[in-house]
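Section 5: illustrative case.
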């Protein structure tokens, strides 16, 4: 599993350059000031935003190549995303959120039962997101991500809005599941403790003095590209 990307995107007078390559088993922690392009980097990998110029490869296969006019839609990239607020569907139950896109056939299987137990969701399955605490919503979002058959896991400040107890519980779940996740994890955070706890690689988005250009660069020598 790997991500390799050399990509530039312009937003008005602001330009973001990303030169990134990380390989199998990596947990890349991305830091940087607000508005520097951290979330945009995740959106590029996920396919929510297209490269203005450049190329993105997942496992050596181009999913975005501006020179060839190639763009693979998000649902075909095998990328799972955990958003700041959880990104749950408010009209669906916890059970339906966890299995979204894969149907009810997933329920009752060994993986489903394991994830429900590990993330302590058994008593919450019939509830909707509006009935959950912040920590509970984030556990549901993480469970959905780890249950998906993804090659890349993207997390955008998943503990930012949690209280201390919930944050510690979610971090423990992240640590346990990162250790066995077979793909690449990219975690955006402002928290130095999380960087220390999880990172195999770190990268900071650097913004120039004029605040017109930002650059993110990290290269793992094991990854071609």
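Designed sequence:
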């Amino acid at each position: 599993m790997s991500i390799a990307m050399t990509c530039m995107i312009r937003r008005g007078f602001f330009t973001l350059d990303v030169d990134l390559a990380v390989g199998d088993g990596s947990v890349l922690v991305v830091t940087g000031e607000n508005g520097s392009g951290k979330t945009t980097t995740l959106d590029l990998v996920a396919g929510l935003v297209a490269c203005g110029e450049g190329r993105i490869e997942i496992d050596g296969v181009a999913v975005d190549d501006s020179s060839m006019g190639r763009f693979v839609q998000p649902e075909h990239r095998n990328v799972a995303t955990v958003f700041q607020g959880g990104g749950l569907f408010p009209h669906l139950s916890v059970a339906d959120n966890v299995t979204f896109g894969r149907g009810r056939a997933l329920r009752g299987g060994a993986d489903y039962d394991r994830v429900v137990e590990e993330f302590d969701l058994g008593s919450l399955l019939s509830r909707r997101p509006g009935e959950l605490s912040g920590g509970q919503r984030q556990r549901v979002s993480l469970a959905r991500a780890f249950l998906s058959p993804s090659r890349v896991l993207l997390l955008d400040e998943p503990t930012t809005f949690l209280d201390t107890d919930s944050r510690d519980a979610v971090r423990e779940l992240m640590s346990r599941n990162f250790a066995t996740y077979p793909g690449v994890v990219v975690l955006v955070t402002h928290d130095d403790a999380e960087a220390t706890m999880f990172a195999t690689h770190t990268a900071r988005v650097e913004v120039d003095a004029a605040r017109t250009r930002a650059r993110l660069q990290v290269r793992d020598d094991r990854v071609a590209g």
